[in-house]
């Protein structure tokens, strides 16, 4: 009773096709496929962005100390 046979799955598939129709199922499949492809492309872009820091971001700690501006000191003068 815990496992389903092939006949159970075929009956479920038949009911799903009768409820939604083949055209709607095809559209849902293509939408799902394009969503997965977009997700993979986004993950690939995110990985390449992690390799290259954004413009203007300081990556070396030595140069970060040279470019630091003390705002309070400028206000006093």
TrEMBL record:
| Entry's localization field | Cell membrane
Where would you say this protein principally sits, based on its record? membrane
Q: Which GO terms describe its biological process?
A: protein transport by the Tat complex
Checking InterPro entries in the record gives: TatA/B/E, TatA/E
MF terms from GO for this chain are: protein transmembrane transporter activity
> One GO term of the cellular component aspect?
TAT protein transport complex
Question: Could you tell me which NCBIfam families the record lists for this protein?
Answer: PRK02958.1, tatAE
Could you tell me which HAMAP family the record lists for this protein? TatA_E
The entry's protein name is Sec-independent protein translocase protein TatA
What is the native source organism of this protein?
A: Ottowia testudinis
| Lineage per the UniProt record | Bacteria, Pseudomonadati, Pseudomonadota, Betaproteobacteria, Burkholderiales
């Amino acid at each position: 009773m815990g496992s389903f046979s092939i006949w159970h799955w075929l009956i479920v598939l038949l009911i799903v096709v009768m409820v939604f129709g083949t055209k709607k199922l095809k559209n849902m499949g293509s939408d799902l496929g394009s969503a997965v492809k977009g997700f993979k492309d986004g993950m690939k872009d995110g990985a390449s962005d992690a390799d290259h820091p954004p413009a203007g971001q300081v990556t070396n700690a030595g140069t970060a100390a040279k470019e630091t501006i003390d705002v309070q000191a400028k206000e006093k003068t």
